[in-house]
UniProtKB/TrEMBL annotation:
This is Cytosol aminopeptidase. Cytosolic metallopeptidase that catalyzes the removal of unsubstituted N-terminal hydrophobic amino acids from various peptides. The presence of Zn(2+) ions is essential for the peptidase activity, and the association with other cofactors can modulate the substrate spectificity of the enzyme. For instance, in the presence of Mn(2+), it displays a specific Cys-Gly hydrolyzing activity of Cys-Gly-S-conjugates. Involved in the metabolism of glutathione and in the degradation of glutathione S-conjugates, which may play a role in the control of the cell redox status. Its EC number is 3.4.11.1, 3.4.11.5, 3.4.13.23. GO terms for cellular component: cytoplasm. It comes from Clarias magur.
Length: 490
């Protein structure tokens, strides 16, 4: 079957004093190869292309029957202090994504992409923009493998492909139905993804007996409501085995389906709770990506995996359970289960003398109310850690925003009638994301710890131009960029 080739080329918005065409270097080279036909047709085909818009032309070149020209916005756009991201990189990601999608919709399977002056961002835009979860549908989107146009091998392009594929792995895990991705299937999938790197990665798939022996009573109390057995997935990536430096520990919430338990959720929208393991998906995908990139850093990944279901064995409001560190917890809301499984995982994380602990979790609807999908909320006890997470997010465009860890919130979870802690704040809905973070801090003694509440960025409607509607896989790339930056520090 004949599969035509397509090409994505970039064009900048004209400067006020510029009457000529503002083509990228690659687009200008293409234009010369077709004797100026591209410039000519752009000048007569309508108004100048705006940022993120595209136009397809046919018959310009025998090797590329279809050429999608995309608007990159202003040339030289850089980091925006107000937006806390790099406008130039985001413009490239969005433009390349829309061009690739247009060609994909025409069933063009081979697409070459203009590097647009930043081949990593172009690769990310292409790989992220083309992804759609259709594995369970009879009719599927055309499978497109984007390639860099105009040159041979390019390390930045390959890096961008791996960044994009990492986030797509998280999206695939989060999007899959809960009966297809159980705790056991999740762990097996990650183990398979890491198998090519077995010389640097050790995977421990801990069973219920091990969890009991570790006295993870909070985790077990959540898992007992489901017939699916819990799994504690432990990953060890030794990217710098000769280093005496302590590892970065990444911890992810792995609720593969969250019904709310006895405190059951409303049925409307409950299907999206198949993605309540988004923290585990992003953390594990970041480690898969770090291994693929061969980052010279040591990382430990910890993900408690289970379902939160209502049954005769499930937690009941008012029950008291004991965490690994001996603290007792009054469970007044069984739908605040993520903090229970993370409590035990965070305690266990300290066994590795961590350089830093970063946990990610779709923890609270309150985080979505506070920030929406604009940024991941970060609660941290460390300015050092915050600065590095923030710097990484500016580069990736997958932003983070610092939230407070005041004693004001700690008091609301430490005043409990029956136990040391309550799993919901004293004033219920008020400051829900903050009281959840304060709860987690009760299980942390490390000097560098950050809690990433990713509930608001779990899914995408149309907010991120280079992601289709569905589960987002955010902030996988920010975690990878953060780990890469740590690797470069002595």
């Amino acid at each position: 079957m004949f599969s035509p080739y397509g090409l994505v080329l970039g064009v900048y918005e004209k400067d006020k004093d510029d009457n000529g065409m503002c083509l990228t270097e690659a687009a200008a080279a293409f234009d010369r190869s077709v004797s100026g036909k591209l410039s000519e047709i752009l000048s007569v085909s309508g108004p100048p292309l705006k940022k993120g818009k595209s136009r397809i032309f046919y018959g310009l070149h025998q090797d590329f029957p279809s050429v999608a020209v995309v608007g990159l916005g202003q040339k030289g756009a850089g980091v925006c202090g107000k937006e806390h991201w790099d406008n130039g990189k985001e413009n490239i990601r969005a433009a390349v994504a829309v061009g690739c999608r247009q060609l994909q919709d025409q069933e063009i399977a081979h697409v070459e992409v203009d590097p647009c002056g930043d081949s990593q961002s172009a690769a990310e835009g292409a790989v992220l923009g083309l992804f759609e979860y259709d594995e369970l549908k009879s009719k599927k989107k055309t499978l497109v493998t984007p390639r860099l146009y105009g040159s041979g091998g390019d390390e930045a392009w390959e890096k961008g492909v791996l960044y994009g594929e990492g986030q797509n792995l998280a999206r695939r895990l989060m999007e899959a139905p809960a009966n297809h991705v159980t705790p056991t299937v999740f762990a097996d999938t990650i183990k398979q993804k890491l198998s090519p790197f077995s010389d640097k990665v050790i995977v421990h798939k801990r069973a219920e007996s091990w969890i009991e022996a570790e006295q993870m009573g909070a985790f077990l109390s959540v898992s007992k409501g489901s017939d699916e057995p819990p799994v504690f997935l432990e990953l060890h990536y030794s990217g710098n085995p000769d280093s005496t430096q302590a590892p970065l520990v990444l911890v992810g919430k792995g609720i593969t389906f969250d019904s709310g338990g006895i405190s059951i959720k409303p049925s409307s929208g409950m299907d999206a709770m198949r993605a309540d393991m988004g923290g585990a998906a992003t953390v594990c995908s970041a480690i898969v990506t770090a291994a693929a990139l061969k980052l010279p850093v040591n990382i430990v990944g910890l993900t408690p995996l289970c379902e939160n279901m209502p049954s005769g064995k499930a937690n009941k409001p008012g029950d008291v359970v004991k965490a690994k560190n001996g603290k007792t917890i009054q469970v007044d809301n069984t739908d605040a289960e993520g903090r229970l499984i993370l409590a035990d995982a965070l305690c266990y994380a300290h066994n590795f003398n961590p350089r830093a602990i970063v946990n990610a979790a779709t923890l609270t609807g309150a985080m979505d109310v506070a920030l929406g999908s604009a940024a991941t909320g970060v609660f941290t006890n460390s300015d050092w850690l915050w600065e590095r997470l923030h710097k990484a997010s500016v580069i990736t465009g997958d932003r983070v925003w610092r939230m407070p860890l005041f004693q004001h919130y700690t008091r609301q979870v430490t005043e409990s009638a029956l136990a040391d802690l309550n799993n919901v704040g004293k004033y219920s809905r008020s400051g829900g994301a903050c009281t959840a973070a304060a709860f987690l801090q009760e299980f942390v003694t490390a000097g560098h710890w950050a809690h990433l509440d990713i509930a608001g960025v779990m899914s995408n409607k149309d907010e991120v131009a280079y992601l289709r509607k569905g589960m987002s896989g955010r902030p996988t790339r920010t975690l990878v960029e953060f780990a890469a930056a740590l690797a470069s520090e002595s």
